[in-house]
Amino acid sequence: MGDLTEANSEFGESALWYLTEEPAAAGRRAAERFAEEVEQAYQSIQQSPYRYPIQKDGFRAWPLKRFPFSILYYIDSDEMVVASIYHHKRNRSSLKRRR
Asked: What are the C-alpha distances in Å from 56 to residues 46, 52, 90, 92?
């Protein structure tokens, strides 16, 4: 898997949001579920990287099932490179520079 620096930062910010915005136990559980789903998505992408088509911005988008996020990635020399853990309300135009 490629460099995940920006995607890791987005993951941390999102998990922290669930921890701080939800009541204590619920927030902890939501953050754990988010982390589990992201990890499951990474594994699924590695098993079937071509499942989702390339979109206009050059990324493939693997949607999470229970959260309003997608894993945006591309394939470079048979390696999966995660560009973003993208919240669906964000503007995707700023992600082009990550490719």
From this structure: 22, 13, 16, 11
Q: Which domains does the chain have, with CATH numbers?
A: 5-98 (3.30.2310.20)
Which residues share a beta bridge with 63? 70
Written as one string, the DSSP assignment of 14-68 is HHHHHHHHS-HHHHHHHHHHHHHHHHHHHHHHHH-TTSSPP-TTS-EEEE-SSSS
Q: What was the pLDDT predicted at 97?
A: 57
78: amino acid identity, one letter:
D
What pTM was estimated for this model as a whole? 0.83
- Residue among 21, 29, 33, 20 at smallest CA distance from 67: 33
Q: Read off the pLDDT of residues 40-95 as tens digits, 9 standing for 90 and up.
A: 999 999 999 999 999 988 899 999 999 999 999 999 888 888 989 989 888 766 66
